[in-house]
Each structure stands twice: as structure tokens, then as C-alpha cells.
Design a protein that fits this description.
Strand content: 5-15%
Distance between the termini: 40 Å
Strand order of the largest sheet: 1-2
Number of helices: 4
Helix content: 40-55%
Number of strands: 2
Structural class: mainly alpha
Largest sheet: 2 strands, antiparallel
């Protein structure tokens, strides 16, 4: 399977074209994305929005001064750790679950857990 990237979920057989996602080694297909808990999807959306906002601020000359570089470095480190923690949580959700995928949400909705 050359030129294809597998879905992060080991039980999923979906793939994506390598040229559409340069530099990526895995993806999350739409089916698996919807199967994830809502908290992961909300966290991804929040981190992505904050990243875009900081990117816009960094382009402004009033925020991009040499004396602020240590602050930007700390923010970059914080966001890198946050993205890595989310990525590891998503990987753990798909690989370490004893129950079938999606059953946790179903049980919570029905008050069984």
C-alpha cells in the first residue's frame, strides 16, 4: 500500500492519500472521529482555535518583538505538550480499550456506567 496513510484506529481499514497529508504517518477517518468521545473532539477544537489565535498575534509586530521571544518559546512548549497529551489520549482510546469502540458513550448515555 504505497502512497497511503492508515487510520489511527487499528480496527479500521480506511486510508488516505499521502499527497493530501504531507508529513503525516497516521490520520483519523471521519467514521472513527465521530466514534471518539466528545471531550476529545472539543479539546482538539479548543487547541486548534487557540493555535490560530496565537498565530495571528505572532504576526503582529507589537507582539513579535525580541524581548518577547522567551514567552513565545514557553507558549510553544505548552502547546506542544497539550497536543501530545491529546494525541496520546486518542491513541490510548483506540488501542487499549477492552470494550468495543463507542460502547463507553452508549453506556454513559443510558446511565449504565
Amino acid at each position: 500500500m504505497t502512497g497511503r496513510i492508515r487510520c489511527l484506529n487499528p480496527r479500521c481499514a480506511r486510508t488516505a492519500a499521502q499527497d493530501k497529508h504531507p508529513g503525516c504517518d497516521t490520520i483519523i477517518c471521519a467514521k472513527c472521529w465521530r466514534a471518539m468521545p466528545l471531550e476529545f473532539r472539543r479539546r482538539w477544537k479548543t487547541l486548534n482555535a487557540r493555535d490560530r489565535k496565537l498565530g495571528r498575534l505572532h504576526k503582529k509586530t507589537s507582539f513579535n518583538r525580541p524581548e518577547r521571544q522567551p514567552q513565545w518559546n514557553r507558549l510553544a512548549a505548552i502547546y506542544d505538550r497539550a497536543w501530545e497529551a491529546l494525541h496520546l489520549s486518542i491513541i490510548h482510546y483506540f488501542t487499549a480499550s477492552e470494550r468495543p469502540i463507542g460502547i463507553e458513550d452508549f453506556l454513559k448515555e443510558n446511565g449504565l456506567v
